[in-house]
Amino acid sequence: RFISCVYMCQISSIRLKSWLIGISESLFTWTRTEMIRSCRAYICTKRLIRLNRLSLRRVAFPERKIVNKHHETK
């Protein structure tokens, strides 16, 4: 009885350990993928904002460029 109880406890502890390890690994991989995703999204939004700013500048100040060109020709 005692030996079988110890054996069962050992098995349960091993199962628990493997289960915990599996959970921690899955959590780690999930958090890593989520972090990568969020980083990519952040970079993409940054690029989009930058592009939008550039396009806004181009739209907002086309006259200035023309004026500058006229000055250069003079």
UniProtKB/TrEMBL annotation:
<protein>
    <submittedName>
        <fullName>Uncharacterized protein</fullName>
    </submittedName>
</protein>
